Amino acid sequence: MESEQRDELAGFLQVLPPVEFCCVYGSALHPNNHDKSKMVDYILGVSDPEQWHSENLRMNSDHYASWMVNLGGARLISGVADKVGVGVHFNPFVTWNNRMLKYGVVRMHNLVQDILNWDRFYLSGRLQKPVHILVDGVDIANVNSVNLRAAIAAALLLLPSNFTEKDLYAKICSLSYMGDLRMLFAEDRNKVEKIVQGQLDLFQSMYKPFLEEYETKDWLRFTSYDNNVAKLSQACSVSATRSLVSSLPPAVRNQMGAKLGEKKISSETGRVFSEVLVGSREEAARCMQKVLRRTVMVSSVRQAVSGFLAVGFVNGTRYLSQKMRKAWNSRR
After folding, report:
1. Helix axes 200-216, 191-198, angle to 10 degrees
2. What DSSP designation does 286 have?
3. What long-range pairs does 254-263 form, CB within 8 A, spacing at least 24?
4. CA triplet 25, 29, 32: central angle to 5 degrees?
5. pLDDT in tens, 111-132
């Protein structure tokens, strides 16, 4: 991202209360994107959302639906996000510096837990795709490395023995869309392909260190290159499958263990942990896919309901209609 563009996007933070983490994502990441008509998306991490929203209501009350401001303010906003949704409150259609913005506010604890465990698989899925970090007071970039390694493992379980880098990134990108109800009627059917094609260089720089790490473990192998896109292969044995499953986040492994069975293993240090019983690669892949699909489905429904409550009927309908228009155009 060009420094001028970065400074412009970071400038928005000056009109908000302080945050501990901030990233932008979507088309704003493209260095040649100067189209100010497209909405810029932010994720903001704060230690205390209720306190943050309370201060932001004083500074920017126009960012919120009027009925929420009148009926309870910050406590109601945080409550809707946590109890109805998945812990994120989004303010869409915010106008600043002749640009249209959308920002989501999340408690830092919830963000870290989702990154490490995939318990809601909402923001963790977003952070598996390219983002540009503007503020990182708690080193989320380092924490997210766990998320990226796990994303590779999950994608490899769903891929054949031979594939390309593009195949891998497309599979990673699709993980957090499996089971998302919006994909049925309110998202571009070519969304994954467009994300990977438009940000291929960003995916490569983002995942290269982890792919090289997986290569040293003999979990995958670079076979050749075609136009700077690697062709790869992987072992599909039961042993290799067990290794991939063991690299998945705890929340996913626990649910897989409940379905497939598990056994207790003692490490050299005396620590006891559970290992998912893997009978075949196909069985493990199907089980993981079901777990992720259900997690994403539940999160997408909860966040959709939370979104309509939080932004109000008019803005909620406006946002959904824009999504549906894109989806319809992609199917024509």
Report:
1. 90
2. H
3. 255/291, 256/284, 256/287, 256/288, 256/291, 259/287, 259/290, 259/291, 260/284, 260/287
4. 155
5. 999 999 999 999 999 999 999 9
**265-292: per-residue pLDDT in tens?**
877 777 778 899 999 999 999 999 999 9
Could you tell me the two tokens for 323? 């999504």
The alpha carbon of residue 236 and the mean position of all alpha carbons in its chain are separated, in whole angstroms, by: 27
Q: Is residue 71's pLDDT more than 90? A: no
Quickly tell me which residue has 């089971």 as its tokens. 179
Q: Which two tokens stand for residue 15?
A: 């009109």
Cα 226 to Cα 155, 165, 206, 231, 255, distances in angstroms = 21, 10, 19, 7, 39
Given a contact cutoff of 8 angstroms between Cβ atoms, the answer to whether 178 and 291 are in contact is no
Cα 292 off chain centre by: 13
Residue 200: pLDDT over 90: yes
- Contact indicator for 316, 205 with CB cutoff of 8 Å: no
Sign of the Cα pseudo-torsion (62, 67, 71, 77, in order): negative
CB 262 within 8 A of CB 274: yes
Contact 139, 38 (CB under 8 A): no
Residues paired with residue 41 on neighbouring β-strands, in sequence order: 25, 102
114 token code pair:
């989702």
CA distance 310 to 104: 11
45 neighbors 88 (Cβ within 8 angstroms): no
User: CA distances (Å), 26 to each of 41, 42, 127, in order?
Assistant: 7, 9, 11
Instruction: Provide φ and ψ at 35, rounded to 5°.
Output: -80, 100
Q: Tokens 């406006």: give the residue.
A: 318
With tokens 């990154």, the residue in question is: 115
**DSSP 8-state secondary structure symbol assigned to residue 28:** G
User: What is this structure's pTM?
Assistant: 0.89
Query: CA-to-CA distance for 168 and 152, rounded, in angstroms?
Result: 8
